[in-house]
Amino acid sequence: MRSDGSALNLRRWWRSAGFAWAGVRQVYRSQANFRIEVWAGAVALALALALRVPLPPILLCCALVLSLELLNTAVEAVVDLASPEVHPLAKVAKDAAAAAVLVASIGAALVGLVVLGPALWQLF
């Protein structure tokens, strides 16, 4: 598709944002892991607000995990399109994309422990 001018064009930005939100909606509808991660992030953010702990690390971790899950879904779709039959390299691509989500999720859980843990511990 050809560019229709300046990146500062508001109409162009809204159109691009519409495509992006369509992707988020599609992935939310079709991917159980994404739905789980969205709700886990919502719980983490609610806890951070309730416990009055710093929000930026929690927000950043949520954004990272959700972004990587979106990319993982995109990689899987492209690999399935390009290689409908089983192929060792297709497996590598899919496994590596899934591993990126796993690494980010573990990191997010550790950040959650460090940021939310002490405040939760004080409640008990």
TrEMBL record:
Transmembrane segments: 96-121
UniProt remark on cofactor binding: Mn(2+), Zn(2+), Cd(2+) and Co(2+) support activity to lesser extents.
InterPro entries linked to this entry: DAGK (IPR000829), DAGK_sf (IPR036945)
Keywords, ordered alphabetically: ATP-binding, Cell membrane, Kinase, Lipid biosynthesis, Lipid metabolism, Magnesium, Membrane, Metal-binding, Nucleotide-binding, Phospholipid biosynthesis, Phospholipid metabolism, Transferase, Transmembrane, Transmembrane helix
Active-site residues per Swiss-Prot or TrEMBL entry: 69
Residues binding substrate: 12, 69
CC cofactor: Mg(2+)
Subcellular location: Cell membrane
GO cellular component: plasma membrane
Record-linked CDD domains: DAGK_IM_like
Keyword presence, Plastid: no
Lipid metabolism listed as a keyword: yes
Positions bound to a divalent metal cation: 76
GO biological process, one term: phospholipid biosynthetic process
Membrane topology, as annotated: Multi-pass membrane protein
Binding site for ATP: 12, 76, 85-87, 94-95
Alphabetized GO MF terms: ATP binding; kinase activity; metal ion binding
PANTHER family in UniProt: DIACYLGLYCEROL KINASE
Entry's family note: Belongs to the bacterial diacylglycerol kinase family.
Name of this protein: DeoR faimly transcriptional regulator
Organism: Deinococcus puniceus
